[in-house]
Amino acid sequence: MAPSAPDAPQLSPLIDYTELSKHITPESLWVLIDDTVYDITAILTSHPGGKGPLLKWAGKDATNAFKPIHAPGTLNTLPHNAVLGKIDPTSIPQIERVLSEEEQRIQKARAALQPPTAVLNLREVEALAETVLSATAWGYYRSAGDDERTFDENRASYSHWWFRPRVLRKISQTDTSCTIFGLPSTLPIWIAPAALARLGHPDGEMNLVRAAGKEGILQGISSNASCSTAEVMSARQPGQQLLFQLYVNKNRAVTEELVKGLRKAGYSGLILTVDAAVAGNRERDQRAKGDFTGPSHGTVGTGAGAGVAHAISGYQDPDVAWEDISWLQRLTDLPLYVKGIQCIEDAVMALEVHRVQGIILSNHGGRSLDYAPPPMTVLHELRHDRPDLVKDREVYLDGGVTRGTDVLKALCLGAKGVGLGRAFLYGNALWGEDGCRRVIQIMRDEIVTGMRLMGVRTIEELRPEMVRYVGEWRAKM
Description:
Elements (H helix, E strand, L loop, with lengths): L16 H4 L3 E2 L2 E6 L2 E4 L12 H5 L6 H4 L16 E4 L14 H11 L10 H11 L2 H8 L6 H8 L4 E3 L14 E3 L2 E3 L3 E3 L13 H11 L2 E4 L7 H6 L7 E5 L5 H9 L1 H4 L3 E5 L9 H6 L18 H5 L11 H9 L4 E6 L2 H10 L4 E4 L13 H11 L1 H6 L1 E5 L5 H9 L5 E3 L1 H10 L1 H22 L12 E3 H7 L1
Parallel strand pairs: 8-9, 8-15, 9-10, 10-11, 11-12, 12-13, 13-14, 14-15
Antiparallel strand pairs: 1-2, 2-3, 3-4, 5-16, 6-7
Protein name: FMN-dependent dehydrogenase-domain-containing protein
Organism: Vararia minispora EC-137
C-alpha cells in the first residue's frame, strides 16, 4: 500500500468585510489594517491614545489612520490571538473615491509647488508646508503650548543680539566643519529629534537620515519616530552617525531593554529628553483632532480632543528624576546628553553632579510649558554666571532657529552646536529628501555668508565679543 500523503496545511478562511463591519462595540472591536483583520478589544482601555480613535475606526479599514503615527512593528505587540485573519478582497465594498475638500486643497497645492531651489529661507519653507499638510499634521507639527508665547520668544530672542563685525579680514576661504556630540560634522547644526515624519511623507524619518548623511551633519532619532530602527539604519550613508532620543517608559523594563540595545543597533549617543514630563497644552493640535480622545494622565477631564501629542505620549513616565541618570549610565556606555535644561541650577546638576557628556538647552520648541525661558536667554545666563561650564563642557541648544545668523549668535555665546526640528519636518512634507537637503543648504549658505561678513573663517573664531545684547547697545547710544 502506498504511503498516505501528508495532511495539507489548514488555511484560515478569509474574513468577509460584512463580518468585520459588525464588530464595532467595546465588547467586540475589530479593525482592518492593510489586508489583515485585528481584534483590538483587549487594548481598548490601555491604548495610549484612548478609546476614541479605536472606536472611530471600529469595523473599518484603519490603514491610513494607523500608519502615519505608528512605527512599524507596533502590531507585533498585540496579543497573538488579536490576529484574526486576512480580509476577503472580493467582499470589500467598491465605493467610488471622492476627494474631500482637504484632499482637494492639498492636491492643488502640490500641483503648484515649485522645485526646492525656489525657496530662499526657512520661513518660506514653513509657509509652503502648511499648504500641503493635512490639518492633523500641521496642527501637530506647528503646535505650541497655551498662548504660544514661548514659541514666539524662542524666535524673537535671537533678535535681541546684534553682531560686532570685524572688517578687512581675508575671508574667501571659510570652513564650517566642527565636532558636535563628539562626532565630526560639516556644519554646527544637527537635526533635532522630531516625531512622526510620516505625517508629512511616506518615507518619514528615512528622508531626514538620507539628507543628513549626504550633507554630512548629525541627526537625533526620536523615540516616537514613525520609522523603525531597521528602516532608519537602512537609510544611512556609510559611516553616518546617529543619536537616539529617549523618553523613559512607565514600564522601566521596556526602556532598559531598549537602551541596552542602542549601541548594537548602530547609535552613537543617547539624548534623554526632560522638558516634556507630560504633554503640553497644544491647542492647535487639539483643534485639528477635535474628535480624538486621549489619556488624561491622571488630570481632571477625559482627555477628549487631546490631539496627536497625547496619542503618542501616554507611555512616558512623568516621574523620571535625577537618580535615573545614573541608572541610564549603568545601562550603556554611550555618551549621555540631557535635553531640556532651562536654568543654571539644572545645568550644574547635569554637568557637575551627574557628569553627563553634555546638555541641550531647550524648552521643547515651546511645545510644553508656556513662558519657559528661550534657550538663548538660558545660554546668556549660563555664560554670565558659569562661563567655565560653557567653555569647558558641551553645551548645545535648540528652538526657534530660522536663520543662519541665529546659529552664529548662539555659537558666539559658547554653544557647541544648534538643533533644528520643525524645519526638517516641513522640508520633508514638501519635497521629501530633497526638501530636507534644501533646508541644510539654506542654513549652510546663510552661515557661510554670515561668517564672512563678520570677518571670521572658522567656527573656532566665533567669540562672545562678536555679539552684543541690543539692550546694552541701546543703553550706551
